[in-house]
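User: I'm curious whether this sequence folds into something compact or stays loose and floppy. Could you predict its structure so I can see for myself?
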Amino acid sequence: MSRGSDQEPATADDAARAKVERRGLLLVLSSPSGAGKTTLARRLLEGDAQIQMSVSVTTRLARPAEVDGQDYHFIDEAEFQRRLQGGELLEWARVFNNSYGTPRSAVEDALAAGRDILFDIDWQGAQQIAETMAQDLVRVFVLPPSGAVLEERLRTRAQDSDQVVAERMARASDEISHWGEYDYVIVNDDLDASTRALHSILIAERHRRERQMGLPGFVRRIQDSL
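Assistant: Here's the prediction. I'll summarize afterward.
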């Protein structure tokens, strides 16, 4: 293989030199409950080893099959307030009488190491992150095809009572009103197509010039070799 071609580097040593150091990014997925963001998040994590899920702390009780430390860190309200007052949370929100928040240190360490973090949070959390880490943030809002489809999905899950479904539907309009604050919008009418769109957004954002911290040195090495 010619070293002057546009194909992959000829040797493992070439490949190592060709890798450009990159700062990680924060990919936020928001939507009304039932629009499919959790399924999209799971698919993205399964298909891309370079991104990991942010594990939030929450005061709500664990649902069946949820694992402490994997799905959420389940804590009581007193511990949540201690972390909040101590500046240990990057963002937080009160949703349906429960508190949710993102541990700050784990996120900062991942970004510095070039790892991407995926967030399944609402518009309030996205706004809070934007206040302190706007340059690292990529926001994607997931819309349902219609209100009727949204309600059908909520009822099909069979996890919530009729009252909770009604509360979530009432809240959906307010949540959807914030779509204009996001960088990208996906209408989730086809799960496979939506998954491809989300992964395409992630790949493109990784290649932003300002995120490739090692690019100046990489370019200089190319110029020096010419």
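Summary: The CA atoms of residues 220 and 226 lie 10 Å apart. The mean pLDDT is 88.
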